[in-house]
Amino acid sequence: MASEDAVTAIRAGQLVVLPTDTVYGLCCDGYREAPFRRLTKLKGRPETMPVALLAADLDVLLDAVPEVRGRAAVVARALLPGPYTLVLPNPARRFRWLCGTTPETIGVRIPDLPPAARAVVERTGVLAATSANLHGGPDPARLQDVAPEILDGCGAVIDAGELPGTPSTVVDLTGPEPVVLREGAAPAEKVLAEVRGVLAREA
């Protein structure tokens, strides 16, 4: 079974390709540095570039990065799951290997996962996750869009058919005002309006 193979691969420190609510992702165990180094090497991605933590639900993420509780967690709970990557404060500098040149912040992702992928993530905790393309290449909407060398370097792959194909919208919540760093699957103005609405209700 593909989900079981993916869980086994992640626990063994291998890379996997999983479908998300946006594009196919290249994932590995987020708790260990060595699998992440293999991920960046296979993708050809500079290790100075941050990679997000992916979880099945916010409570798992808060267990991994407890300092996120508070204002950032309130906004995250309102937006997630969804096609967003949220950049949150990381004052304890947890998961430093994922944070590139900004260890005091961390990107998090809680997608609305297809069932087979959700079954994997629920059993593996937090994953390091980036799009399953070679660095600078097109985002893969289908498994056949994933480069052969990436597929060959993975311990398991889950195929969920064609995905939307537009990557997540990246929102920085570390400052006094939310900032959209990359507009993707969710329109920037829609996201900013939602975040400001949440913050206004909490004020």
Largest sheet: 9 strands, mixed
N-to-C CA distance? 48 Å
- What's the architecture, going by CATH? Alpha-Beta Complex
Unreliable residue stretches:
none
Shape: globular
CATH H-level superfamily: DHBP synthase
> Which CATH C-level class is it?
Alpha Beta
Quantity of strands, as a count? 9
The CATH topology annotation reads as: DHBP synthase
| Classification by helices and strands | alpha/beta
Helix content: 25-40%
The number of helical elements comes to: 7
- How much of the polypeptide forms β-strand, as a percent range? 15-25%
Average pLDDT score: 95
Please give the domain count: 1
What pattern of helices and strands is seen along the backbone? HEEHEHHEEHEHEEEH
Strand order across the biggest sheet? 7-1-2-6-3-5-4-8-9
Q: Taking Cα atoms only, what radius of gyration do you get, to the nearest Å?
A: 16 Å
Write the layout of secondary structure elements.
Blueprint: H1 2-11, E1 16-19, E2 24-29, H2 33-43, E3 52-54, H3 58-64, H4 71-79, E4 84-89, E5 105-109, H5 115-124, E6 127-131, H6 148-152, E7 156-157, E8 169-172, E9 179-182, H7 188-202
Parallel strand pairs: 1-7, 3-5, 4-8
Antiparallel strand pairs: 1-2, 2-6, 3-6, 4-5, 8-9
Helix pairs in contact: 1-5, 4-7
Structural features, described:
- The chain is α/β, with parallel strands linked by helices.
- It has a single domain (2-202), classed as DHBP synthase, CATH 3.90.870.10.
- Helices cover 33% and strands 19% of the residues.
- It is built from seven helices and nine strands; from the N terminus they run αββαβααββαβαβββα.
- The chain has helices at 2-11, 33-43, 58-64, 71-79, 115-124, 148-152, 188-202, and strands at residues 16-19, 24-29, 52-54, 84-89, 105-109, 127-131, 156-157, 169-172, 179-182.
- It has a nine-stranded mixed β-sheet, sandwiched between helices.
- Helix 1 packs parallel to helix 5 (115-124).
- The radius of gyration is 16 Å and the shape is globular.
- The termini are far apart.
- The model has no long low-confidence stretch (mean pLDDT 95).
